Amino acid sequence: MNKVLLIFRREFAGYFATPLAAVFLAVFLGIASGMTFFVAGFFDRAQADMSAFFLWHPWLYLVLMPAIGMRLWAEERRSGTIELLMTLPVQPWQLVLGKWLAAWVFAGLALMLSTPLWITVNVLGSPDNGVVLASYIGSWLMAGAFLAIAACISALTKNQVLAFIGAVVAGFVFVMAGFDLVLSAVRPWAPEIVVQAVASMSFIGHFQRITDGVLEAPALVFFVSLIAFALWLNVQALDARKAA
Amino acid sequence: MVLVETRDLVKQFGAFTAVDDISFSVNRGEVVGFLGPNGAGKSTTMKIVAGFLEPTSGQAFIAGHDSREDPIAARQRLGYLPEGAPAYPDMTVGAFLEFVAAMRGLSPARANERLAELAERIDLEEVWNRRIEALSKGFKRRVGIAQALVHDPDVLILDEPTDGLDPNQKHEMRELIRTLAPTKAIVVSTHILEEVEAICTRAIVIARGKMLADCTPAELLARAPARDPEAHQLVRTTRLEDAFRHITLEQAGS
User: Fold this and answer.
1) Which of A184, A206, B5, B74 has CB atoms 3.0–4.6 Å from B62's, for a disulfide?
2) Cross-chain residue pair B54–A3, CB shorter than 8 Å
């Protein structure tokens, strides 16, 4: 566990060693609040809640999380540092977990910087703070799922652009899983149970239930197990490249 | 004492055989030079021994630990300088070496002591707080060596440690390798032939994945073909070059 922490620390500090962190945080907050005020009509709704803020998160993350995750492994492979990392006395899962954790905490930091909005809502009215907290947790978990998928795809290539595009496409499938766009591609050849299974993978579906105030087991289990599965695949991808 | 051993290593990338049945062993106190043309399979062999790649068949051992079955124990005894001496460009030299030391399981006190020793020995003090991306090639290579020596390993695998260094830096690197040699087993790859004479106790010639020679530098010299004293040489070659060309071109012709 100590090694996971060491990897985490190095990676997390890495975000702040370049302007990347500042640029990302500014873009995240800019788009998130732009969406809230202009697209979702935060003031026009005249309601003291934050659903206008959370509504767009699946779409925001679809682009921004791959931007964080694309470099996790592709960069190491391109620069050759992966050879250093993989010949240190550590298990691949420790590397995978440490890197993902750093990206996830970084995403959490971006999310935390939006709390002035929460305070504002509390000043203007009396929102259901339980729902807001649940939504924050749900949003962070969803970000973790996007990041785990992006990390896994990043392990397959040394080209960051390819990693980004791959992660956006994979994320898009998950975001849209409950919609006809994806379901109609599955329905013609798969039995109903598979269609149901795909529909239940929908990020939007699970996230909406959380932001509606239902922070219950299925949605949590869904995101946590998806993260675990993607990270497991990430380890497999590293092992496969070793034998290739 | 045998510290590095490979048995019938084969590595295929698709239909291409990069490493073709390579077996050798290295004892403590030996410095073995891997010689060969570019693309001969030197780096691939080193990557397999270091445990970064898995062989298609065959085995590699570091201090008796199978690099595939028992990778963590093998890696603990190994210091590895990958080709091109990669390091994290956005870290300072000090932060990078501290990271490696911690990952290698050194206690903070031991790490401090060890890093101070290395900084002095490899002349890294003046760049200790500088970012790696701002370093000259020579310093980058030294950081790579320092990284491989942090835990004072029994085995050193150095992939082209003098590549890109100026003559003075090359000389210093060779001296460093010589001073480390008595207590370790060292494998060095190079395509600079004079290096083999300067630092190696043994030379292994590899071309097209196959081992063509495993002998002392003196024996390698003896394999140079007799020179025709009448022949006019456009470019003057050394005896070692003659031997190397003879061995590798003979294979290419066959």
Assistant:
1) B74
2) no
Q: What is the pLDDT of residues A118-177, one digit of tens each?
A: 888 888 888 888 889 999 999 999 999 999 999 999 999 989 999 999 999 999 999 988
Between CA A104 and CA A101 the distance in angstroms is: 5
Bridging pattern class, strands B185-190 and B155-159: parallel
Strand order in the sheet with B57-62: B16-27, B2-13, B57-62, B65-66
Give the whole-angstrom CA distance, residue A76 versus residue A74.
5
Q: Which of B88, B140, B141 is the best residue to mutate to test the A interface, defined by the most A CB atoms within 10 Å of its own CB?
A: B88
Pick from B47, B86, B100: CB nearest A79: B86
Give just the sign of the alpha carbon dihedral B209, B212, B216, B217: negative
Residue A121 CB-density burial (10 A; 0-12 exposed, 13-18 middle, 19+ buried): buried
> Which residues in B lie closer than 8 A to residue A17 (C-beta atoms)?
90-91
Structure tokens at A195: 């269609």
Domains of chain B: 1-77+153-219 (3.40.50.300), 88-149 (no CATH)
List Cβ<8 Å contacts ≥24 apart for A157-161: A157/A74, A157/A77, A158/A74, A158/A77, A158/A78, A159/A74, A159/A78, A160/A70, A160/A71, A160/A74, A160/A75, A160/A78, A161/A70
Contact A32, A54 (CB under 8 A): no
Nearest to A83 by CA among B85, B190, B31: B85
ipTM: 0.89
Closest CA to B186 of B175, B198, B178, B194: B178
A170 contacts: CB under 8 Å, gap ≥ 6:
A149, A153
Kindly report the pTM of this predicted structure.
0.91
Distance in angstroms (rounded) separating the CA atoms of residues A92 and A38: 44
Cβ–Cβ pairs < 8 A, chains A and B:
65
Contacts of A91 in chain B (CB under 8 A): 72
Whole-angstrom CA distances from A179 to A186, A191, A199, A200, B37 are: 11, 17, 7, 10, 57
Two tokens at A201?
Answer: 């993978």
